[in-house]
Amino acid sequence: MSINDFETDYESSMIKARVVHDTPELFFSGKTFGPFKVGDEIQIPRWLAKELTKNRIVKILDEKPLEVPDLAKIHWRESIPESREIPPLDYDFYSKLKELLRELSEKKDKDQSQKALFENALSQSKDIINCRLHKIVYLATNPSITVVTIKKMTAEERRLYNDLRSIIDEWKNKILHLEDEK
Which of 60, 93, 109 is the last residue of a domain? Predict the structure, then answer.
């Protein structure tokens, strides 16, 4: 599964929304949605919920976007010196991170005063990713990693961990396997 597959799964996942404006049937990608009545709680794909939210047709329920203060807390927690522990992240952290950065980038393009906020968030994002990558590489070389530790990783990170672990194990076996020398 590639990063794009994770993103597609995220965007296709169902999300709860409340209808705030009556709407007739909608047709997208060969599928029919609606009609919607004000007050209805509906389950729709995330990508559609975002579009309908932009057009003030629905309000997304029970979904908290990643915000700049959240990112700062995660950055602080991830960048504790000498920590090899991998703190848990929400399963959809990277998808929400991309949404936050996209939103901040659009704001900075419209309002130059937002440029510093975007650049700070981008810098913190890179730091978080680098810290987690270092920890994942370390964990991939560790033969005694626990299921609890793996559960703290996002799906994207577990995929990376498994790929690295496989490559490292194959490399070690080739280096240490002496029967091929006969």
Answer: 60
Instruction: List the domain range (segments joined by +) for residue 151.
Output: 68-176
pLDDT tens, N- to C-terminus, the chain (182 residues): 677 788 888 888 899 999 998 988 888 778 888 888 999 999 999 888 888 988 899 999 988 889 999 999 999 999 887 777 899 999 899 999 999 999 999 998 888 888 999 999 999 999 999 999 999 999 999 878 888 889 999 999 999 999 999 999 999 999 988 665 54
This prediction's pTM: 0.79
Of the residues 60, 89, 107, which one is the last residue of a structural domain? 60
Q: Are residues 84 and 170 both part of a single domain?
A: yes
**C-alpha distances in Å from residue 152, one per residue of 17, 50, 64, 145:** 28, 28, 20, 12
Beta bridge partners of 44: 15
